[in-house]
Amino acid sequence: MAQSDMPTMRSRRLGGELRQLRLDAGLKVQDAAEALECGQPKISQIENGKRGIRPLDLTTLLNLYGLDDERQRASLKRLAKEIHKVDWWSGQGPFLHDVLKDYLTLEADSQAVRMFEPMVIPGLLQTEAYMRHLYEAASPADQVESLVQTRMKRKELLDDRLGFRLRAVIDAPALHRIGGGPDLVAGQLTHLLEAGESSNISIQVLP
User: Fold this and answer.
1) Kind of pairing, strands 165-171 and 201-206?
2) Distance between CA atoms of 82 and 78, rounded to whole angstroms?
3) pLDDT class for 3, splitting at 50, 70, 90?
4) Phi then psi for 199, rounded to 5 degrees?
5) For the purposes of burial, counting CB atoms within 10 Å of the CB of 23, is it exposed (0-12), middle (13-18) or buried (19 or more)?
6) Residue 148 belongs to what domain range?
7) End-of-domain residue from the set 28, 51, 81
8) What is the pTM of this model?
9) Peptide bond just before 207 cis, omega within 30 deg
10) Residues 59, 110: one domain?
11) Which of 25, 43, 53, 135 makes a 20 to 30 Å CA pair with 196?
């Protein structure tokens, strides 16, 4: 990915975290530039997500900022490494708007997601039949299949071997709004019960 294609969601996140670490350490852009032996514009571009950062330079800044948390250091290094990563949804074209693509990036990079859903079953817990029923009622016919396949692909995050955890709170009325016929309803409710048995999935119903 050329620098002209930035910022990306990941580069903005990395830059924002590095800026906050610098500010928390009471340092100026000039201090970071001197540590990397570069000009201030480079530091500003990194913090604005307009350019990446080499592993050695990142380590230098993390040391300068006094970051001792090994988990946070590892997370930032992974984020820096994946700034130019081409995700599977990048090729979905105009059916997925930029805000949704940014959300998918955040979701894919997360170790845990917590959600509250008052109207429908959370997307990651929907059966294919249920999500198709929803999309057919609200989306153009030529987009339904792409949207369904995108949501089905997202559900792969729930494979507990990936270390991803989901906690979902569902408002009780959402369970009564499933619609689509008795077979669809039964299938969706059965799926929720089965998903709730997974060690990395917690489902609660708000009365």
Assistant:
1) parallel
2) 6
3) low
4) -65, -20
5) exposed
6) 88-206
7) 81
8) 0.62
9) no
10) no
11) 135
Work out the mean pLDDT of the chain and round it to a whole number: 87
Closest CA to 161 of 104, 107, 105, 200: 200
Rounded CA gap, 175 and 173, in Å?
5
CA 18/CA 94 separation, integer angstroms: 32
DSSP 3-state of 166? strand
What single-letter DSSP state applies at residue 73? H
pLDDT of residue 73: 92
Same domain, 130 and 60: no
Residues 178 and 151 in one domain: yes
**Angle at Cα 108 formed by Cα 104 and Cα 137, nearest 5°?**
40
In the chain, which residue ranges form alpha helices assigned H by DSSP?
Answer: 9-24, 29-36, 40-47, 55-64, 70-81, 98-109, 128-138, 141-154, 172-175, 182-195
